[in-house]
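Fill in residues.
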């Protein structure tokens, strides 16, 4: 059984989010939450909140045992960027691109099925 949680239009660049995603990919859920507590990046807080949401979805909707859950998939995709202009000298303008991303976490308890 797989359960997911999705965060759309997160306010950070996909490159920065992937740094945190690579740290927790494939971990047990308990270890991933502990790991996210000690990562000092903005993305870590977003990932922790999203992971807790995925755990709650698995427990409430599927009746899964929390101790058996592992992170099976972490996807970080581009979202539409916000485009802004900043005034520069001599009446010119520079474009500022504020990148955003979509984050998806999938948790599963496939080990339980393989043993049964």
């Amino acid at each position: 059984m797989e359960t997911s949680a999705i965060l759309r239009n997160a306010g950070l660049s996909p490159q920065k989010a992937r740094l945190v995603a690579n740290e927790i990919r494939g971990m047990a859920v308990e270890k991933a939450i502990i790991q996210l507590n000690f990562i000092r990046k903005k993305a870590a807080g977003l990932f922790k909140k999203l992971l807790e949401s995925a755990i709650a979805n698995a427990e409430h909707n599927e009746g899964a045992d929390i101790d058996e859950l592992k992170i099976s998939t972490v996807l970080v995709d581009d979202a539409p960027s916000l485009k802004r202009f900043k005034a520069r000298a001599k009446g010119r303008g520079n474009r500022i691109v504020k990148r955003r991303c979509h984050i998806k976490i999938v948790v599963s308890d496939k080990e339980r099925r393989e043993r049964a």
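The two ends are 13 Å apart (CA to CA).
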